Amino acid sequence: MGRLTEPVGRYAEHPYYIAQTDISVYCVEELCFTLCQNTFLLDRGLLDLKLAKWLDEECGLRELARPLYGLINQNGSPSAFVGIILEYTHYGTEKKRQETEELLRIGADMDVSTRRKHFADYLVGNGRYAQAVMEYEKVLEEIPSMNYVMRSELLHNKGVALCRLFSFAEAAEAFLLAYQENPAFEEAALSYLAALRMTVSEEEYITFIAEHPMWHEQSLEVEKRLEKSRIDYENSEEYKKLTGVLERRDTEYYKAVSEKLTQMQRDYRKMVEQS
Hints:
The protein is about 70% helix and about 0% strand.
């Protein structure tokens, strides 16, 4: 849980009930924690006069409540409302406060499921892949089968997150399900073949394509993209650095490889801690 730098306000005698999350809070710290942990559930209903009065009268935070009253009267945005609360209390880190406000801005006019999807997409974009996979799975449980377009997008994006975790077999399964949900989703088919190619030998992959001619056209596109990726990587500064060291064949090569592996381990640990 993010912490306030020092206690702000007092503990309320009567809790405030946040309808969108079905949670009652007794102090501003509990309120901040709930807002940050359930951002994807919040909507314009959060701009509640009762919440401003609760902070004012129950928590003794009149200075915080004053701008909230004004924002409610001006029909302001949920992101601005939450931003005032988090900024006043100095809750969490600046990065966390900005993240919460950004998620609220993105999801302002979306339904809950769409907001949760965008939240999961946001997690992927910020390297929190394991948490994103769990979030996609939660949303998939809520989306009816008739909404096949959104289900296919969720499955595809789940596959992307799994690829970032090097779980290519599970990713291939997710991509295939995405394509089966929506056969018009060509990118899901290409992603399926690319992930499959990472899980089997080249001989097994060629045999699979030969035995499933319906995948032939997509397999050609996959090879074209893989070749482009190879060329792009070989032109990258990282590749040039590693090959330059390799050509010298001295201890610097092993040092460079060790540093790269160490950085990957750090990135993985950080990702797991955030999930």
